[in-house]
User: What shape does this take?
Amino acid sequence: MEVIPAIDIIGGKCVRLVQGQFDQETVFSDSPADMAKEWEQQGATRLHVVDLDGARTGAPENMSVLEAIVNTVNIPVQVGGGMRSINKAKQVLDVGVERVIVGTSAALDSETAKTMFDELGERVILGVDALNGYVAVRGWQARTEERAVDFARRMAALGAKRIIFTDISRDGMLSGVNAFAVEKMVSAVDIPVIASGGVGSIADIKRLRPLKNKGLEGVILGKALYVGSVVLPEAISAARSV
Amino acid sequence: MIRIVDYGMGNLRSVQKAFERVGHAAELTQDPDEIRSADRLVLPGVGAFGAAMKNLGRLELIDAVKDYAGSGKPFLGICLGMQLLLTQSEEQGVFDGLDIISGKVVKFPPPDKSGLKVPHMGWNSLRKTGECPLLAGVPDGASVYFVHSYYIDPPKDAASAYTDYAVEFCSVIGKDNIYATQFHPEKSGAVGLRILENFAAI
Assistant: This one.
């Protein structure tokens, strides 16, 4: 199981939010590229970067920062935020990003989703954001009537190759991972799943580790790394050992 | 001076920056004379084989790259830049390569036969076949980062490492002054940087 540090960007800075709320922002670094280098030096094999401005406006807003990150580190970088169309996704991939994340709201337009899956294949990941088991949309302020597992199955049938599953009630809370929801998701689909949201301790990683055999490919670590409740090298070895 | 051939196939900045990180300036070039006079030459590349050969031809760089390879000075091909060294590719038709290393570029077996996805995208390990200066200090089994749908089938004596993915394919070439990696050293963390450092020291 791969441990993937997250770098969230607002206005060119590395921040963390609580449950996706923009008024609960903490700045952790003025230089996301330095942050990226730090995680690489601590052993990260991949980075998860979220352009939160892009997520809000619907178009990539921090291109120069993304480029700086990609050119600073020597590991693959995946990017989410603002990927509402194939052209925006390609624009981000063109700077050397490994794969882009198409958000839940964008994917609810099945035509956009299908175009992305067809054209980008392994280079696009579907973001599935869930609140109490249901698909969450609009900056996580609203939920739909579709169950997250049904949405994931529907998207896999449409051609999605990989999912990032975020339990938004846990994101930025350090309240512990919702391993039960993650297990339901990995059991629902045949494509690899990366879990995100709520990891607050090494115990959480150990809780997720057995799901590796069911298709849990990785776990994204955000706030826990920034507040120090999890140390990256420890997390990496905890995710690795059997 | 390390020179990187810039022929319009992908973002080369990350390769350039990676060399800078290990303390070596590298410059991008599209000039045949600069290619011939380089101390070390890197041929990177992302994309389709046919388009890459077409670009090299249009920029009149094919002879320059071949002349350089024949000069005995260290040469490094990366990913598509490795595949271009072969005689021929069957990627979307049959295309002639640079024919610096004999052999073909072939496609992975279809996913339904192997159960594995194509492209091969992600971290995978190296099985070294012997001592190769490019891999000095790189342990057997080290993980490196791949993105490719085709692989090369060169003569055995040209292969310095293999990687297993549905088939066992040659992931590193080390033959005389010609070195190449199927993976991206510029994306392969500390191991990748070590490889670039090794190349700069050969």
